[in-house]
Amino acid sequence: MSKGFVYLVGAGPGRADLITVRGAEVLGKADCIIYDKLANPALLRYARAGADIIHVPKRIGSTSVTQKQINRLLIEKASGGRIVVRLKGGDPCIFGRIAEEIAAISEAGIDFEIVPGITAGIAVSSYTGIMLTDRQYSSQVVFVTGREAEGKKESNIDWSLLAKYPGTIVFYMGMGNLDFIAGKLIENGMSENTPAAVVTEVTFPTQEMAKAPLSRIGDECRQNKIGPPAIIIIGEAADSDKSLGWFTKLPLFGKNIVVTRDSVGNADFAQEIIARGGNPISFDTFKIVSLTDSNEFLRALTEFADYDWIVFTSGNGVTVFFEALGKLGKDARVFGSAKVAAIGDRTAERLLRFGIKADFVPNVFTSGEFGKQLLNFTSLRDKKVLLLRSQIASNELVELLQKGGAAVKDVAIYTAVTQKHDSDWLSEKIDNDEIDWLTFASPSSVEGFFETIGSETVRKNNVKVASIGPVTSRQLESHGLLVDIEADEHTLIGLLEAIEKTYK
Ligand code: SAH
Q1: What are phi and psi of 336, to 5 degrees?
Q2: Which of 151, 159, 285, 357 is most buried, by the most CB atoms less than 10 A from its CB?
Q3: 144 is in which domain, residue-wise?
Q4: Residues 110 and 218 in one domain
Q5: Residue of 9, 15, 18, 95 to mutate, ligand 1, most atoms within 8 A of C-beta
Q6: Which of 20, 35, 36, 38 to mutate to test the pocket of ligand 1 (most atoms within 8 A of CB)?
Q7: Alpha-carbon separation of residue 283 from 267, 295, 329, 421 (angstroms)
Q8: CATH number of the domain to which 69 belongs
Q9: How many domains does one find in the chain?
Q10: Residues 150 and 41 in one domain
Q11: Beta carbons of 161 and 187 less than 8 angstroms apart
Q12: Tell me: the pLDDT tens digits for 26-62?
């Protein structure tokens, strides 16, 4: 494919996991990803490491020059046989100006594929419960643009026809013209009392809806500060049964929750928050740095099969370990007949991804408790145990296992290094009452966080503090903070459940 190849991919309406399987698949193949304003940047998690990622903001009223620049960019990036993904909000073929891009790349002799996406006007139905079609009152739906191409002499919109339309009318890009649209429909004979709904930020935790009769919908939006991007729904459908909505009833819907782990950990945690309707705000406090270049680790690896038990205490440990193994050209066979223990389901799940089914996975959250349980589970007298864990782990586990008669080797395979970066934006949000919760899942997070954000900022504002367990809580208290809630179950899910409980 020396000519290169362009995939025009629908990103879906917003929420990152609403992209199609095909869309995610081609994102993972791309050498270059060109995305615009409506495509959720969280989708870049499907990109492969090292892909060239280009953001092209294209605003309302942009001139054709900008479109031309994008066209040129597509051709340039695909040259030399590269795979380019052009990621577009919703479905690429619905109000996506994709024809212009295809014309340009075709002319340059570049092949392409179009991957559909869920368009905003369809997702709005699932995420509000407003049924665009209903056998009682709407047998048809029409998608209309609220903003026609600039410079077009005659309108394609036949307002008198639309005013009589016996189904549901869905407007895209209509917020700048909402009063004009309502006025045109009424002027052409549509009843002022026709139900209308405007839904902004569809499928995001920031989704909001305004409902009013057609003549008042503009005022209603202004009053509730509802602006673009929004879908406007006009017709009986807009007044449909409220009980069909589920999204805004999720337990953490609309809550702004700051996550303070490393970037990979934050991305995983964010998924859980999104699934509960919340709005995760990532603030990376530390970076996981592998220590697997150490002689100690390399020596342990050569003796691997001599160990009776190999213990992983975190998912990070598992990832770092297998990365190192891969670099050394080895695989899971190094375990030989050694048994494997993992603290917590998440660690065990991560091991499973690399083909290792842990022999012992106690449901405990501290390494001390883990040690006790392992000794209950099996005798460790004269057994060789290898701990692969973080540099900052406490010595408690080692001592316990030694007391049980084991020969313990404790090898640090990673460490957490505090990350300092610009934090003014977050302090500002806390000051403006735009953050509901700060979450802390380890003492390292606490240290990293307060190295950049003054504890005074947290103390003097309304923001609440959630901690995963006693060790983290103590660390928070040492900064003079009140812990609002501590998880009963000391896991990330336990942390979210504790937050949810405060709203019940
Ligand atoms: N291709 C896109 C539409 C692009 S036109 C699609 O299929 O969805 C841009 C318009 O889409 C916006 O003005 C708005 O009307 C609508 N839109 C896109 N994403 C939206 C979202 N998450 N919430 C509300 N409206 C959205």
Answers
A1: 50, -130
A2: 285
A3: 121-248
A4: no
A5: 95
A6: 38
A7: 10, 33, 35, 9
A8: 3.40.1010.10
A9: 4
A10: no
A11: no
A12: 999 999 999 888 888 888 889 988 899 988 876 545 5
